[in-house]
Amino acid sequence: MKKFTFLLLLVPLIGISQEIQYSEPTKFIEKSGYVQVNMSENEKTLFKSGLGESVSFYPSEIIDLKENKKILGLAVESSYIVKDHPNRPTEYTKETAWIGTDEIPDLIIWFENYVIPNMDLASKEKKTVKYIFNTKEIQLKFENYITTQTFTIIIKNSNYKDKYFWTETRVKDIPNILKTLKYLQSKNL
Question: pTM for this one?
Fold first, then answer.
């Protein structure tokens, strides 16, 4: 009986530790009556896979049309395969997560100090190195293996927990995200 009681006491604690966090842009959009989102096509960074999956990083201006208030944020739009049917079209889903401007400086440091300097390093030691960055709504991973590298973008608040975007062939495009982040940061000054 004591074991059963103990397990019941742990269940609420587990729920507390997995509380969903939202970025400032998401909170702003949810709180607003109606919004306009201006996404900068010229400054976006796009990754595509051979299967047609993609992820885009859009610097965005979000406007509360009723209150006429504005904030900036980075929209991360991910499109990935939900179901692949034989003899029928493949089903894709699109999800958007946001990175707030308060998260941008640390993300720039992560790319500049850890990811980009290690993109060209051949693994001299026989080990795998992973660099992980967590924002409130997404997780970024750069993994440097002995013979290959991968870049992964995971939306945390996804309806499809087992779906995420990753690429080996487009790793060389990672510095473009840094350009997008710096563009958004310059707009926020």
Answer: 0.83
